[in-house]
Design a protein that fits this description.
This protein is 40% helix and 18% strand. The strands form two sheets. It has a six-stranded mixed sheet. It has a five-stranded mixed sheet with strand order 2-1-3-10-4. Helix 2 packs across helix 8 and helix 6 packs across helix 10. It binds benzoyl-formic acid (173). The site of benzoyl-formic acid has 11 residues, from strand 8.
């Protein structure tokens, strides 16, 4: 039987805390999952967040980390949060577009979170999560980490005609816009798809391929980098809001470590024989302008009520 925090349980804790005398409050346990494999790049900082909450929250709140995609398949994590099968999740918007089509638009806003919290972006996105996912949007990570298209077939211009490219909603529109055939898979299926030649390339951030062993089955990384990774932590947290929010801000601050990490990963890719395909500034600009335009059009088409506001907040 899966445990979730009910309003009644929270009320009981609050009542106990408020009672006079030495009444010990009951520690609450929240179940957490990640939509990325345990101990890999896009789970690591979330795992540090859990350690911090468990240290700071002793006696008040405990997070029980159930694990990665073996616990809940990546594309089902959003629904698991909505239905309270889990209390806290580390997940990217592209994985729950079934519940919130505009969630795929968060990748188009690469402003630092300090700014997004000040200018109302975080607030607006949090409201969307309150309404559509029955949850709080605790933190957004990796705003400064871009995506790439990785390839095993060499191209001599930015044109994916004749290529099958593994995607999630993150890359679908841009792959199609440049003539490629998108094939959607969860990250767990990418290695085998590359090994068997089922796909000629894939979309993935600049960081994290070594954790998954994909360097062994990758020949090229196409420039330029585009969009920005959005992995968020969401959960139900009415009673322990301050503890979780303080830890969430700390988690967003970890993004500053990514500047050095990106440089190191690009060098490591070169060392592993993954050559950068760079077509120069003019071709990169054409690619980026189109990549943003097709993605915004796609978000606005799927979410006509909220998409334009997200674009205005992103300012691009
Ligand atoms: O490629 C993916 O699976 C994907 O969409 C993603 C999003 C954020 C971080 C890493 C991967």
């Amino acid at each position: 039987m899966i445990r979730s925090v009910s309003i009644a349980a929270l009320a009981a804790v609050l009542a106990a805390t408020a009672a006079p005398g030495p009444v010990a409050a009951q520690e609450i346990t929240l179940r957490a999952v990640s939509s990325f494999a345990e101990s890999t790049e896009f789970s690591k900082n979330f795992e540090r967040f859990i350690e911090k909450v468990n240290a700071d929250g002793k006696g008040v709140l405990k997070i029980n980390y159930v694990g990665g995609p073996r616990a809940v398949p990546p594309f089902e994590v959003g629904n698991a949060v909505r239905t309270r099968v889990v209390d806290i999740a580390n997940v990217t918007g592209a994985f729950y577009t079934n519940l919130m089509p505009e969630a795929d638009g968060f990748k188009l806003n690469g402003k630092p979170m300090s700014e997004q919290r000040k200018n109302g972006t975080w607030d607006y996105i949090n409201q969307l999560h309150n309404q559509k996912l029955n949850s709080q949007y605790l933190a957004r990570q990796f705003h400064n980490v871009p995506f790439h298209i990785y390839l095993n077939k060499k191209i001599d211009k930015i044109d994916f005609t004749g290529l099958k490219i593994r995607v999630t909603p993150v890359y679908r529109d841009v792959v199609e816009a440049f003539g490629g055939t998108p094939i959607t898979t969860a990250p767990g299926e990418v290695y085998t798809a590359l090994e068997r030649g089922v796909v000629d390339g894939y979309g993935w951030p600049v960081t994290g391929i070594f954790d998954l062993g994909w360097d062994k089955v990758t020949k090229f990384r196409m420039e330029p980098p585009f969009y920005s990774v959005e992995v968020n932590v969401k959960g139900l947290n009415d009673a322990q809001r301050k503890l979780l929010n303080d830890a969430a801000l700390w988690l967003e601050g970890l993004d500053s470590e990514k500047v050095a990490e990106i440089k190191a990963q690009r060098e490591r890719q070169a060392g592993a024989g993954i050559a950068a395909l760079d077509f120069g500034a003019a071709a990169s600009k054409v690619f980026l302008d189109r990549a943003y335009e097709v993605a915004w059009q796609s978000v606005i088409k799927r979410a006509p009520e909220t998409g334009p506001k997200l674009r205005q907040l992103a300012g691009n």
